[in-house]
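Allow me, if you will, to draw on your knowledge of protein folds for a short while. I have a record of one protein: its chain in single-letter code and its fold written as discrete structure tokens. I should value your view on which stretches of the chain appear to form regular backbone elements. Thank you for your consideration; the sequence and its tokens are set out here:
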Amino acid sequence: MQKPEIQQLLDKSFSDFTTFIGSLSDHRFIVSPEGKWSAGQQLDHLIRSAKPVNKALSMPRFFLRWFGKPAKASRSFEQIRDVYRDLLQHGAVSTRPYIPPVTGIGQRETLLKQFDQQKSKMIGLVGNWDEPELDRYQLPHPLLGKLTAREVLYFTIYHNYHHLHTLQLREKPEQPWPTQLERVIF
């Protein structure tokens, strides 16, 4: 994938998540069914995940040399997705800095604004990188190890969709909310 496509997919992944969150009732935004993160917590988690990416993308390239040079070429979006899925299937979980606190109803607008700010910042920062630089520098990822900047962007796109899909499955549109609530309680 080249930069314009990466920027377009980043925009879409953030926007699709925002649209879904906006469609939820206040109750659905804060409920944590079956001990899982609420939609609000998942939104907070994605903000926490985007911030270090933006911080790294905004650093002078000189400082990024501290993480070393990539030993191999950037993997494809599909390869990054598959490695992440495999880790999740084998029990990998979010590390402490990315675990969100309980969210309240009053936080939705603030979190959505922060999420949108992270999206705009990331898309803009990608524009400051040239194609070879995306493969020349690597960044640490808490579960995947060192990834090239391009791979980090692929991960961010997939990560947004992973959490969106999790929430969409939870909604189970074919079941009315009282039926879902009964399933959770009993």
About this structure: The radius of gyration is 17 Å.
